[in-house]
Design a protein that fits this description.
Shape: globular
Strand order of the largest sheet: 2-1-3-4-5
Number of strands: 5
Structural class: alpha/beta
């Protein structure tokens, strides 16, 4: 059944996140004035939802690639996500952020903060 496959995937995903991972991401978000998100496919949709929620909380959140999104700069936080970890555009944007000294949070089976 397709629904069981989805439930199994969600259970695997939940097991990879720890409370400390989530706390670290929240702290990282709170430490930055501007938060940018980028992902493709379903990961991108979830990050767009996150950006919307952050904006509703009064934070400055942007979706990379939208026409009104400003350029990132040092001191910003970029959150990227890729289900496979192999999405070229996501990897290229993450590498570019590191070169520009932009803080980075990577969501891929587990949370990685730079």
């Amino acid at each position: 059944m397709q629904s069981q496959l989805i439930i199994d995937e969600l259970n695997r995903s939940v097991k990879t996140l720890t409370e400390q991972n989530i706390t670290n991401l929240i702290q990282k978000i709170q430490q930055h004035n501007r938060i940018f998100v980028y992902g493709t496919g379903r990961s991108g949709l979830m990050l767009k939802a996150l950006a919307m929620r952050l904006m509703q909380l009064g934070l400055n959140a942007f979706v990379v690639g939208e026409t009104t999104t400003p350029s990132t700069q040092q001191g910003d936080l970029l959150i990227v996500a890729s289900a496979s970890g192999e999405t070229n555009s996501v990897n290229m944007i993450a590498e570019s952020a590191l070169k520009q000294a932009i803080d980075l949070a990577i969501i891929w089976h587990r949370l990685i903060l730079h």
